[in-house]
Amino acid sequence: MKLLTIIYYSALRNLKDRRMLLIMLIMPIILIAILGMALDSMFAPRQIEKSSVAYLNADIGPSSNQLTSYLASEQVRTFINVTPVTCFEAGQAALDSGSAEAFIYVPPDFSQNLMRTEGARIHLHTSLQTPLIKGFLSNYVDAQNSALVVTTMGAPLGFTYHDYFDEAAISLEGKAPRAIDYYSIQTLLQVMLMGGWYGISSVKDDGDMNTHVRLHTAPISPWTHLLGKVLANVVVLCLQSSVVVIFSKYVYGANWSGNALLIVSTLLVFSILTISIGFLMGGLFKESNKAFGALWCLMLFFSIIAGALGNTDMGKLARLSPNYYAKTALFGTIYGGSPDAIHSSILVLSLVTLTVFTAALALGRRITA
Amino acid sequence: MQIILETKDVVKRYNGLLALDNVSLRIPEGCIFGLIGPNGAGKTTLINAIISMTKIDSGEIMVFGQSLDTADREFKAKLGVVPQEIALYDDLSVYQNLDFFGRLYGLRGIKLKENIKEALEFVDLWERRNDSPKRFSGGMKRRLNIACALVHRPELVIMDEPTVGIDPQSRNHILASIRRLNENGTTIVYTSHYMDEVEQLCADIAILDHGRVIARGTKEQLADMVAVEEKLVMRLSGTSYTLLDCVKGVQGVKAAKLESNRLTVVSRIRINNINKIIDCVLDAGAIIEGINMERLTLGDVFLTLTGRSLRD
């Protein structure tokens, strides 16, 4: 019950802080609108460039000839340059050298397997996201399967294509976010980092207001006190994030669809991380202003390298920012990115959070004791 | 009488500086115990040690018969602290402040509401319960500071200069409240810079200087420790200088002087020669219009014992 008292009153005090409400609610709502409108052109769909594909038909039977004809058709050639290769190694080399984005390989037993129950396979090798190539290939496979079903009257025959991805990343092409979608996520994460101020206040306030004497002489453990404050801050930050999400979704029409549980989990973990960073800053710096200054610098650094100034790619540097992992998880969840990428981002974010949280608890415990 | 708070040979050093030097005190239940000393004497260090904000280097502190080293956390529920600095949440209302601190002491429901009302009525702030302390004067904040320490009805209240920097009216209000609190059975440890407050409130006083208890007793006992003479002042009419010779001849009188209608006689203490001095005055045909025995104040005692005034 004492824990609930600390959570309730700490949260109440946070919610009464008008300056922070302005920063945490009004600022992101305005920023999302401004950036979403001002930078909309940056996010307009660009002309699709032709993809280049290496193609090897090693099938000894006739069934794959249709694929060769399909790839040579006008419909496909408008979007894809298909370059035949003479052997598997040549296709692989084209892929490795970058002269081909993908390598389509029809194995020798293709026609033979087509009449067997396990079906035949068309192999797609690529290290990139190639939705266009995959789309054409899927269309072909679907059409051929439909024709087979009709001719064999339901026999379990057919063929599939199988792709070999070396790496999966978020797919932005084809269904890329608009500026309002991008900045809803980016601004929210950026502002959530400012929630670290709640952590700083939690560490500093009782000293500044001298209430630490009362808390120390009250029959509560320092852990209860500390945990109560952390939880209160997380609750408030999650509440404020929810308001921004709901507002941007229903007023600005920003895209927040996708797996709600993953979105909520990502935001929750990110909240805990930012509050913990705040506790750390509060413990490391004697004066609140210095702690806040350090938090501000950190927020700027994390936001910039994670692409807050636009949809820019900062390469591996971005991985130093927790925003990057939260952003990857959120964009991946909303825009149908690879589950592996989403889960690994959440995992990294959780591990970083756990580390910072533990350090913050240790430092906070020393301060509140 | 039961001892509610006891310190035994408490020593505390800060970077080699001796802040508390074998401080031993026994504070009986039900009293108002005054702890006075100049700045840097060790008062706040001693109080912080008692409320376990400061760890002592050696010695022992017993509160409610339990050693602080081994006492469970629940003993804190019987202890109330009024810190020297105002310790309130400005962003919470008066009622919310008391509600928060009351709940930390495990109070709930009707009991909590009753206690909050009682504490706020005690300091005359019940009508302002929904206000923010931000709008309060210094005196009102001080009163609320006290109420926060009383909401859980502690048996022992430690007050560290609770009247610093407030107007006389608020100060009198607080002093009256402290007396009532004590009358209701609460033991109070009171530190102050104001000698008159300690004189008014405290039956038992300790003077702390350079981390040591240099004197301990009632106000009278302390005065007796340092007093070697006492002063009698009479306002007279129809005076004659012949009475001076008579007065100077009274046993124990060290000096006498007559200035206009004012006779000042300095005697050794505990001689009981007032009747003889009065006889001299009356025999000389003078009329006594007023008489005053000037005793040493606590301030005089303090000055004598420490060689400096309290605010030095």
Strand content of chain A: 5-15%
What is the number of independent domains of chain B?
2
Structural class of chain B: alpha/beta
Order of helices and strands of chain B: EEEHEEEHHHEHEHEEHEHEEHEH
| Share of helix of chain A, binned | 55-70%
* Largest binding interface between chains: A-B, 22 and 28 residues
Per DSSP, the total helix count of chain A is: 15
CATH class bucket of the largest domain in chain B: Alpha Beta
What is the name of the CATH topology of the largest domain in chain B?
Rossmann fold
Oligomer: heterodimer
Report Rg of chain A: 27 Å
| CATH-level-2 architecture of the largest domain in chain B | 3-Layer(aba) Sandwich
- For the biggest β-sheet of chain B, the strand order reads 6-7-8-3-9-10
Please, how many helices of chain B? 10
How would the global form of chain B be characterised? Answer: elongated
Whole-number total of structural domains of chain A: 2
Task: List unreliable stretches of 5+ residues of chain B.
Answer: none
Q: How can the largest sheet of chain B be summarized?
A: 6 strands, mixed
Tally the beta strands of chain B: 14
- C-alpha geometry of chain A: elongated
Question: Can you describe what's shown?
Answer:
The complex is a heterodimer of chains A (369) and B (312). Helices cover 64% and strands 8% of the residues of chain A. Chain A is built from 15 helices and five strands. Chain A has helices at residues 2-16, 18-38, 65-71, 74-77, 88-97, 110-114, 131-152, 179-194, 196-208, 211-217, 222-250, 260-284, 288-305, 322-334, 339-368; strands at 51-57, 80-84, 102-106, 120-126, 159-165. In chain A, helix 7 (131-152) links the parallel strand 4 (120-126) and strand 5. In chain A, helix 8 (179-194) runs antiparallel to helix 11 (222-250), helix 9 runs parallel beside helix 12 (260-284) and helix 11 (222-250) runs antiparallel to helix 15 (339-368). Mean pLDDT of chain A is 79; it is low at 164-174. Chain B folds into two domains: 3-224, P-loop containing nucleotide triphosphate hydrolases (Rossmann fold), CATH 3.40.50; 228-294, Alpha-Beta Plaits (2-Layer Sandwich), CATH 3.30.70.100. Chain B has helices at residues 43-50, 94-104, 109-122, 138-150, 168-183, 195-201, 219-226, 242-248, 274-283, 298-306; strands at 3-14, 17-28, 32-36, 58-63, 66-67, 79-82, 156-160, 187-191, 204-209, 212-217, 229-237, 253-259, 262-268, 287-294. In chain B, helix 2 (94-104) packs parallel to helix 4 and helix 3 packs antiparallel against helix 4 (138-150). The longest helix of chain B has 16 residues, at 168-183. The mean pLDDT of chain B is 84. Chains A and B meet through helix 1 and helix 10 of A and helix 2 of B.
